[in-house]
């Protein structure tokens, strides 16, 4: 936020200042006002920054499916304006995401490929998703491998690649995630589920406990409570239920589990 405020203060033109003001408004929860600033900027001068701000804010804030066509049009307008490689790659990547959401996979793939041509490495993840939606998990896995090779020590890339392979390879990728970033929760949940499937209930609960020790996540508590219930450990299940409900007293699945476990208490 401080950087945006400084950029606004030192803007060399009115249309640049309006764009920075738009981002500040968007980032502080005033999306409609931010969109208006982008439109004002475009009225002064058509620019990549103003079109991109408008497209980004609209895509993130609108629940109306019909807004997708407007976002596409705005991103296409942005790409027609002068911009550097980094910004062009981001716009192409965002456009690919919109096309995926609209199930236009060929157009999405073209966007991601063009983004990769300007060395926007995150597009590998988008292209992997396209391969997966085309029922080609092997190609998706290979695409994520290319990303991992370019972005070394990228825990999120290993985590995403684990979705495109068999269980043993997934376990290996998720072990790497935990080594690179021990505070990412998903690997613990995955390993706990695998252990539970293998009837290693104690190890499964211990795996969840490792994650809960640094993050009292509602879903982790719900899962551990369910595992305790499965083991017949009513008191431990109730303890986790109560802890989870202290985070979200209205969580329906947690309320149902608490009611069921509570009925087993002597």
Write structural notes for this entry.
- The protein is an all-alpha fold.
- It has a domain of 64 residues.
- It contains 16 helices and no strands.
- It is globular.
- The N and C termini lie far apart (55 Å).
- The mean pLDDT is 92.
| Major sheet | none
User: Radius of gyration, rounded?
Assistant: 23 Å
Overall geometric form:
globular
Residue runs with pLDDT of under 50 for 5 or more positions: none
- Overall strand count: 0
| Category by helix and strand content | mainly alpha
The end-to-end span amounts to 55 Å
Average pLDDT: 92
Helix content: over 70%
Number of helical regions: 16
Strand content: under 5%
Element order: H for helix, E for strand: HHHHHHHHHHHHHHHH
Which terms summarize this structure?
single chain, mainly alpha, 266 residues
Describe the secondary structure blueprint for this structure.
Elements: H1 2-9, H2 14-27, H3 31-44, H4 48-61, H5 67-80, H6 85-101, H7 105-117, H8 123-133, H9 137-150, H10 155-161, H11 167-180, H12 186-197, H13 201-212, H14 218-231, H15 234-247, H16 252-262
Helix pairs in contact: 1-2, 2-3, 2-4, 3-4, 4-5, 4-6, 5-6, 6-7, 7-8, 8-9, 9-10, 10-11, 11-12, 12-13, 13-14, 14-15, 14-16, 15-16
Concise summary:
The protein is mainly α. The protein has 16 helices and no strands. It has a domain at 1-64.
